[in-house]
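Handout, tutorial session.
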Amino acid sequence: METKAKDAWGLALVLFLGQLVAFSMAAASFASSFLANLGVNTPLTQSFFAYLLLTLIYVPILLHRRQKPRIPWYWYLALAFVDVQGNYLVVKAYQYSSITSVTLLDCWTVVWVIILTWYALGTRYSFWQFVGAGTCVAGLGLVLLSDAKSTDEQDGGQMPLLGDALVIAGTVCFAFSNVGEEYCVKKNDRVELIAMLGLFGLFVSAIQIFIFERKSLEAVAWSPTMISLFAGFAVALLVFYTITPFVLKVKFPATC
């Protein structure tokens, strides 16, 4: 009886945390869409501040432990690189597509995660999980069809199909990132994963900003609204990266 009650509470906790993850992603999507509507085109900078928060919070905790990393640093670098590209592609998509299309198509991550975990981690899924994933894909196909039909009706600066393509490319990166995170979390400590992801993500995004985004960043007209949107995006991703490893450790990753 106690075991069943414990399992029920565990399931309730996972569901609650899953809703927090969903809320954080919705908040990040809102901030990105709002910034795009204001003419801001700095996706790397948005991610930079999120990785900065992760670094400032989790790296000191890791240093306080005074223990060597259990996973080689270059694996964390590769994981962070893929994650930065995923964030860049998805945030960039808001320049061309609507928040509805981007948010829905972001669920393509489910498909890629199922494929990767099946082959890389040996995860096996039930028939109904495949049915759910198939239903998700069918719905996403309708989003693509809708955007294709509405292309001619959009303003000259709107290219919804390009935005959709960027999102789908970003979900491939997120899938590799999620599977890598799941592997690290199950083999290692969550704090080390988040700290290293933040540190190397900060490093990668800073280099890419210097190379690709300096002019766009200089063109930003900073205001209280602009600062609050950047801060809101960073905090939303902080919540996402903090909670997701815990959810991955207790539940399979293919969750839209």
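The second record follows below. Compare its token runs with those of the first.
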Amino acid sequence: MFDFIFYRLLQLIGDAEIEESPVFCPSHPVEEKESEEVKHIDFDLSETEQVQEAVSCLPTWSEREVNCLNPSFHRWTIMDYARAYHSKKTTPLTVAERFVAAVSESSKPPFNMSFFINYDVEDIMKQAAESTKRYELGRPLSVLDGVPIAVKDEIDCLPYPTTGGTSWLHKLRPCTGDASCVKYLRLCGALIVGKTNMHELGIGTSGINPHHGSTRNPYNSSRICGGSSSGSAAVVAAGLCPAALGVDGGGSVRIPASLCGVVGLKPTFGRVPHSGVLPLNWTVGMVGILAGTIEDAFIVYAAISSKLPSHQNTALPKLCFPLLNSSRPISSITLAKYGEWFNDCSDDIRVCCSNALDKLQKHHGWKSVEVTIPEIEVMRLAHYSTIASECSTSLSSYLEKLDSSQLGWDARVALAVYGSFSSKEYIKAQKISTLNIPSYIQILDLFKDNILHLVVGAALALKSMVL
């Protein structure tokens, strides 16, 4: 597999003559377009105020009854927790106690789910007690107060070490404080419940980990969750947390989200601060969100989105929140379908996606139009070259001090391939990015003008593997 990718890269990138100058950070036009379907958020709002603005954009559904004592499975949303706390049907302390018991049970035979690399019962209960006290005083910080949120072990979060899914990285790179995104969640009162499992160093998409156990899929424990944010997707799918943080460079949030049946969001480059995150691929790796619903992903996005870009060379427009309470009819949605890409998957997945598309068109009146995305294969390989080169460079000082036996076999193979890319190939990959900016802007304009709304296609080309 790696040999084939490397050969294709040499074919399409190594020998290419490209006149354009390289662009080393994602480039997107800064434009604040007025729309009746979005709300522009001022730069001077606090994290809790941004969360409140997000809540004001949600539909005002009548409160559904949540039975806290019913043993049947129910995946709670952030608003379910907030309403239950306000109405005194339960408390953050009670939720924390049940969470700890559930995680402990899931870690033992016959389950062996391997959701977490680290969780600290004392720290969880301390946070829960403080949150419970705030509710007793009638002063919760936000709707996130007391809501359990998990964090991928690629993101700094005290009191835990940041292992990156390894057995050694935390010894060479101690965690000295919270990442910015974690700080923002704490300011909103979120109950940080531990560090989730991940594919070693984030350089695989299965979630199989030789050091901390392979995270099992809650829907079928004999299958993988996908990766690299495997544990974050699994805890959400299992109903342990309504949301979790992941990191996504080439699908590491979106792949496990797909295999676990949850929402996966990779935000725009620069929108969520990257400080305190392992710098494995700094121009394409973004802190992302896994959540049980779009609304929950939206609320967490509002909490962690920064007013300042995470990269000094990036200019960002104001935060733009979708009005999910809009009265716009759902039948007005137009999907873009690139046939060559849509069909590039196994037959059973292609048939499943085609059936889903047919249902959306027949039952909801959605439209589908054929489009072409130029040079998508070249862009994919250039993206791979970028990830590989940046990961190899960022880890080089650590790997020099490391016995390779401390790495899993797939990490060893991947890093050997990553280290074989030359500076010429990296530069040419960035030139390809420049070359495709006009096509990107052209497609973006179609979305801005509401001609198109979504590009449709399979999230994955193959089904979940058996462990």
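Points raised in discussion: The chain has 16 helices and 13 strands.
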